[in-house]
Amino acid sequence: MTQSIHPLPGPACPVSHVDPFSDAFLGDPYGFHEELRDIAPVFWLDRYGVYGMARHAEVQASLMDWETFCSGRGAGIEDFAKVKSWRPPSKLLEVDPPIHTRTRSVMSRILSPAAMRQVRETFTARAEALAETVVAKGEIDAIKELAEVFPLHVFPDAVGLGPEGRENLLPFGNMVFNSFGPPNAIFQESVANAKPVVQWIYDQCSRDRLRPGGFGSQVWDAFDAGEIDADEAATLVRSMLTAGLDTTVNGIANAIYAFATHPDQWRALRDDSALIRQSFDEVLRWESPVQTFFRTTTREVEVAGTTIPEGQKVLLFLGAANRDNRKFPEPERFDIRRRPIGHAAFGAGIHSCVGQLVARLEVELILTALLKRVDVIELAGEPSRKLNNTLRCIGSLPIRFKALAA
Ligand code: 4IA
Known about the structure:
By secondary structure, the protein is α+β, with helices and mostly antiparallel strands. It has 17 helices and 14 strands. It has helices at 23-27, 30-39, 56-64, 99-110, 113-137, 143-147, 149-159, 169-179, 185-191, 195-204, 215-224, 230-243, 246-260, 263-271, 276-286, 318-321, 356-371; strands at 3-5, 14-16, 43-45, 50-53, 69-70, 139-141, 292-297, 301-303, 306-308, 313-317, 374-379, 384-386, 393-396, 398-403. The strands form 4 sheets. Strands 1-2-3-4-10-7-5 form a 7-stranded mixed β-sheet, with helices on both faces. A 3-stranded antiparallel β-sheet has the order 6-14-11. Strands 8-9 form a two-stranded antiparallel ribbon. Helix 8 runs antiparallel to helix 9. The radius of gyration is 21 Å and the shape is globular.
């Protein structure tokens, strides 16, 4: 409906006039996703002058080909080769090898399976206590009282932050995830009053603020070992504080939403708790917290018959790829028995989510703790959306828990 073939000279592919950062798109992306997937493997978004890909095959292939689809020119809409980023670029997300290889190896060691075994006991006790509280309440807003509470309770402690100022963490993340898109009203609103928030975040990244032994302090240990420089160390701590909260809050929120609207799936999980971990992959596929990311072409490249010139921004629709029926049969169905191997919610290739073990641990423990206590999860009212240029967020989620007979 909104497509046309662009008159030459111009991109050699179909054009869409859709605005993927509009309220209408962000509020309910799935109809738009279908339209974009069906236009062509590669299309031109004339609203922003960027290419887009929404089918699984091309999204996946582009993520794997970091030499052609680079991150060093920014993972947002701005090309760092042309404009200066509003924040100093991430030394993890917004760099390419060889720098990336070095910083990534530090982060993946700190967030390794062995590290998860160390925090598991503390995280578990907190998940159990929180589940006890919310189930006793019966009715809650699952955003304010559960999805935000749990990551904010466990992750900043694991990083080793002090007790003061943690209310800055979610506003900071919200702002950064908005900033990957255009400077629209959604973004502007999130940066109003941002100065003290940004300052607080940067202050927490210095060594003397971080509890010895925590994830943040371990980043500084890598500086001592000569693996990274001081600027890289501080910026990697910032990466943890940017990428580690809003993502998991919405991962938990989307999981609760999925089960509340699919009672048969909660029953299936009750019948077979071995499905807990893979059920989170299905949540991620069905409602991907990180919906989109940009790459920039480092050379002219042909994708499915379309030639993309060098230096072009390409918007990858991870959320659309995860609902592509060319890859996942009946993609609209939330089915925890499906093994959604190859979903793109954590990205793919060298930049695939380095913190995913933390996310997986948090969701596993919350679902496990609820499963022990809850017979039925249901909506107790209409959920509301919170719009973000990158994240699929829920604003409020009224939930009723029916407790298991004791
Ligand atoms: C960083 C993709 C998202 C989860 C993310 C956001 C920020 C950073 C990394 C990942 O600042 O390094």
